[in-house]
Write a structure and sequence with these properties.
The protein is mostly beta strands. It is built from three helices and 22 strands.
Length: 336
């Protein structure tokens, strides 16, 4: 099966944090630039959790090991792994805090800070499969102004006054707590992108194909464009419907910005280079397939919309991940 792989920075809303987490800042940490894209999310709260749901076969959590850091635990589905510790006498960055290989399917990951010591998250990486063996993984990009996006009510949504910060120079924004959107698409995997900011809406809800609504937050410590607002996979053939609305906010909300959607699918799931899946692309797929044959194409496609500096930083991270995974397969890393 073609492999779908993705890296989520700590600021990606699909990483759902409990109360007690906050973003690192240069004012409080002179080593902030040691983290990918100079961001990390940390906690000192006992029992604070990070949750992530995904379809796939591998997941890894990465961050720092530093003086004053402490114990944490990881639960995947119903299995609790042995207690781990992020303490180190000297600061170490881009560290593997946890990884494991799993059976292909839907998994829920919960990381818990066990004491009143510090623990941080830099990024999370995961892999999954789509379609059948020996077929290509195809991608399509749809901008926020594509007719497949419907905004309700239309008067509550507007184009961004700073289009240069968005892919395709278009971004659709609302601050109406009663607004909503619907997006119809064909694809086995969807990544909906937008911007997170300190003033973003604190909570939004997303459902696919009339399933349950799951809560996420676009309010982060710093302004970050091109962030994954929502991710879902293993959706199968046919047309799917994504619905997004906002949680109760007592009549007020911050800005919420939609940028674009990336879709992934395979020929066995109805996607063909010459069919509507490819023909509907408003611009060439965001891919650097020719630049490297070692990095998963889906990861590269999802990351090329970032700024050049951020892109290079993430590419370096992904290369390290790939190298670590290769060494792990050669028996140089201990499995959890």
């Amino acid at each position: 099966m073609p492999r779908f792989a993705q890296l989520f920075k700590d600021t990606s809303p699909p990483l759902v944090y409990s109360n007690g987490w906050q973003g690192g800042s240069s004012a409080n940490d002179p080593l902030l630039d040691k983290y990918a894209q100079a961001t990390y999310t940390f906690t000192k709260t006992p029992g604070a959790t990070l949750n992530f749901r995904f379809n796939g076969t591998f997941v890894g959590i990465y961050g720092a090991k530093r003086p004053g850091y402490g114990a944490y635990s990881v639960k995947v589905d119903d299995h609790v792994f042995p207690t781990l510790n992020a303490n180190s006498d000297v600061p170490l960055f881009n560290q593997t805090l946890f990884n494991t290989t799993l059976h292909d399917g839907l998994h829920n990951v919960t990381l818990t800070n066990l004491g009143n010591t510090t623990f941080d998250i830099d990024y999370l990486y995961f892999e999954g499969n789509s379609g059948k063996t020996n077929e290509p993984l195809l991608t399509a990009t749809f901008q926020d102004n594509d007719p497949s996006f419907t905004y309700f009510p239309a008067s509550s949504w507007r184009q961004s006054p700073r289009p240069g910060t968005f892919s395709g120079s278009t971004g659709t924004i609302t601050n109406d707590p009663n607004a909503s959107l619907q997006y119809k698409f064909k694809g086995d995997v969807i990544l909906l992108y937008g911007t997170v900011t300190p003033t973003s809406v604190s909570s939004y809800l997303v459902s696919v194909d009339n399933g349950p609504f799951f809560p996420f937050s676009a309010r982060k410590a710093s302004v970050r464009p091109h962030q994954v607002l929502y991710y879902a996979s293993n959706l199968g053939r046919g047309t799917h419907t994504l619905k997004l609305k906002f949680a109760g906010t007592n009549g007020t909300t911050g800005d919420f910005a939609v940028d674009f959607a990336n879709l992934y699918s395979t020929p066995s799931l109805g996607a063909h280079e010459q069919n509507s899946f490819a023909a509907e692309i408003q611009s060439p797929p965001l891919s650097l397939a020719e630049a490297s044959h070692d990095i998963p194409k889906s990861v590269i496609a999802g990351l090329t919309v970032t700024s050049s500096i951020a892109f290079l930083a993430i590419m370096a991270v992904i290369y390290l991940l790939w190298s670590q995974r290769r060494q792990k397969k050669e028996g140089k890393f201990v499995k959890f």
